[in-house]
Amino acid sequence: xxxxxxTASNPSTPGWLRADLCQVADLDRLVQTGTQPxxxxxxxxxxxxxxxxxxxxxxxxxxxxxxxxxWRRRLMxxxxxxxxxxxxxxxxxxxxxxTAVVDAxxxxxxxxxxESRAAGYGGDHFAKPGANDRVWNAVEKLCLRAPDVxxxxxxxxxxxxxxxxxxxxxxxxxxxxxxxxxxxxxxxxHRDYHLGxxxxxxxxxxPAHVHQLSPFxxxxxxxxxxxxxxxxxxxxxxxxxxxxxxxxxxxxxxAFQEYFDLHHVQLPLNKGDGxxxxxxxxxxxxHNRSTDIRRMANLLQVSSAFGRCMETVDRVRMAQALYPSLxxxxxxxxxxxxxxxxxxxxxxxxxxxNLDRDPPIGGLAPQSQQDLMRSALAQGHRPExxxxxxxxxxxxxxx
Length: 399
Prior knowledge:
Layout: H1 24-31, E1 45-47, E2 50-54, H2 55-64, H3 68-85, E3 89-93, H4 99-119, E4 132-135, H5 138-145, H6 147-154, H7 157-167, E5 172-180, H8 200-204, H9 208-213, E6 218-224, E7 236-237, H10 254-263, E8 265-266, E9 274-277, E10 283-284, E11 295-303, H11 315-329, H12 335-345, H13 369-379, H14 383-396
Parallel strand pairs: 2-3
Antiparallel strand pairs: 1-2, 3-9, 4-5, 5-11, 6-9, 6-11, 7-8, 7-10
Helix pairs in contact: 2-3, 3-7, 4-5, 4-6, 5-6, 11-12, 11-14, 13-14
């Protein structure tokens, strides 16, 4: 275990974390760490502990360097250090060098927002209804409706360098459009996907080393599609909080929310700027106090190539075949054994899914295939009832 990580381990069960043992003082010791200029030499400034990089200067430096690939690797190593053991967040000003391209994408994104409203889609994990407009799976939707715009927008070598710095090659990009409307209240402080989409009780079921692993599976980012002065409520960050090992357990704890409210930082962004952060960094969208700024950003979630199985397994077909046997055996089969059989057959993770048709109602994640199967068994649904529910669930997950 990294000795720099603060722990909230249960002494009686080493290797596990508990929310009731979390102490704000442990987080505070990490947050008080300063961001050192020598750790981010390519940054042009450090504002409120956050390194600021000039996209135009980075592009020019790579071209001028005698070994551009060596320079690129040096930059990627610097960024990885910032996200892992530094403040956990950085800004690339001018990530998109041509704001006309950003504007062209914005036109398409606003059309998608209008279509989403008309279809009754929407919903957010951490904001109240009406505070914002969100479009799920915007990367696919943009590609299908405006491939030329997609090519110009995502044909950005500096963006690819950002992604590779944390995830290595073969990363997978997904995105959501989020437009926070004037008056939209701030989100609650939280961490992001994967463990950040569990309740504290759910996250406690994962051993401590998984809490350390989860941040390395994704990189979070956002591209500003409008100028974002502070009054518009750009994202709030708590630098260095990604190093707090038990941070996935504290999003709902009042003492930690109060600490976040007192110590967060907030930076304005210009159109075309990008901000990227470790998904374990405590953060929250800010309160849009403006009267006329629709604070629109393209939220990027970039995934590791290693987050997928080696074999293709049709778990819908498996669940359909197994369900009659489990239903018949459920009266005599121990509950733990029944759960084990469900776990070995059905998909236990709610993602990936189509969040337009499969929104997280009443929680942070939709119902998983295992949840559906266990519920059907508990209620004694006939096989044909379960099959119909399973097929309906599978359809909602398609893009």
